[in-house]
Write a structure and sequence with these properties.
Blueprint: H1 21-44, H2 46-50, H3 58-90, H4 93-110, H5 121-144, H6 155-182, H7 197-220, H8 237-254, H9 256-277, H10 279-285, H11 291-319, H12 321-341, H13 347-373, H14 381-394, H15 398-410, H16 416-431
Amino acid sequence: MTETLDGNGAAHAPAAHTPARAAVVAWSLWDWGSAAFNAVVTTFVFSVYLTGSSFGEEGDVAAQLGWALAIAGFLIAVLAPVTGARSDSSGRRKFWLGVNTFIVVGLTAGMFFVLPTPEYLLLGLVLLAAGNVFFELAGVSYNAMLAQVSTPRTIGKVSGFGWGMGYIGGIVLLLIVYFGFISPEVGLFGVTSENGLAVRVTMLIAAAWFGLFALPLLLRVPEYRAPDAAKRAKVGFFQSYVELGRDVAKLWKTNRQVVYFLFASAIFRDGLAGVFTFGGVLAASAFGFSPGEVIIFAIAANVVAGVATISVGVLDDRLGAKPVIVTALVGLIVSGSLVFLLHDGGQIVFWTAGLALCLFVGPAQSASRTFLARIIPAGREGEVFGMYATTGRAASFLAPTAFALAVTIFGETYWGILGIVLVLVIGLLLLLPVKARQNQMG
C-alpha cells in the first residue's frame, strides 16, 4: 500500500483495511498486562527489593544490578534485529510474541524463590536480566503488529491508546499489590513482609497479570502473513547477520533519514527511560519519600502519563509525530530543570515538577513508535523495530552514566537530574534536523 506523509509525518491516505475495534483492544491489553514487568518488576518493586541491604552492601548490589542489566542490553542489541527480521520472513510474528511473553511470565514467577539473603542475589539478577531480554524481544513483535491493528490515519491514536493502557494497567496493579500485600502488616491471605514474602507473592501476582492480559491478543488478532516481497529463503541464524548487514546498507542508501531517526531516538529514548528508572531513587534520596510514598507517587505518575498519552495520540494523527516528540522533549527538559533548580522546596516540588515530567514521557514514547511505524514498508516491521530496539539498547548506558557522573562529581543525588536532562537535550538536537517527510523504503 502506498501512503502520503505530510511535512510532519502524518499520514493522509485511505486505509486499505479497517481493523476491528476488538483487535485494537486485544492488542492494547498486552500493553496493559506488560505493566506487570515494567512497573512492578523492573522499576518499583523487585529491583528495589533486590538492591536492599538484605542482599549485601547497597553500593555493591546496585553495581551488580547495573552489570546484569548491561549484559542483558548487549544480548538484546545482538538478538533483536535478527529475530525481528526472521519473524517477518517466516510469518510467525504472533507465535514468537507468545513464546517470548510466556517466558517472561515464567521468569517473573520464578522471582518468588528469591529469598532476601546474599546467596539468592545471583538468582535474582539472572531472572531479572533474562526477563529484560525476552521482554524486549516480545516488544519487537508487539510493536511490529501495530500496523496490523491500525490504519495510516489512526496509527497515532492506536499507539497512544496502547501505551496509555500500559500506564493505566500499571496503576491498577500497583494499587492491588500496595494495598493488598506491601503496605499492610498482614496482607491478603495472611501475607506479611517476613522473609520478603510480600514482594515474592507480588511477583506471582505480576506473572499471572501479564499472562492473563496477553491472551486476548494471542487469541483475537490474526497471525501476520508475510507478503511475497518480504519472504526470503530460510537461512541459518548466523547467516541472518549477513542479511542484516545488507539490509542496513540498503536502508542507508534508500532512506538515510530513517537511520538518522533511529540514532536520534536512541538518545532521547534513553533519557525517557532515565526519568522512570531514577525517579524512585530521586524521590527517596533527594526528596525524602518513604518506600510507600514512592509507590503512591508511582501510581500518580502512571495516571498522568496514561491520560496524556491517550489524549495526545489524536494530535499525533492530525499534526504528525515529530511535532509531538519535539514538544514533549522541550517539556521534559523544562520540567527536569525545575526539579533541579527548586530541589530545596521539598516534596511539593517533586510532586508538581515530577508529575509534569510524566505528562510528557508517554507522548514522546508513543509518537516515536508511530513516526517509525508510518515509514516501514509491509513485511519489514519486525526487522526495523528490531533495529529500533537495538539502537535504543546501544545507547542505554548514557542516562545511567550521566546520572552517576553528575552525582559523583557534585556529591548530591539531585545533581543526577541534570545528567538526564543533558541526554534529553542531545536527543532533541539530533532529532531537529531529521526530515519528517519520508520516502518509502524499498
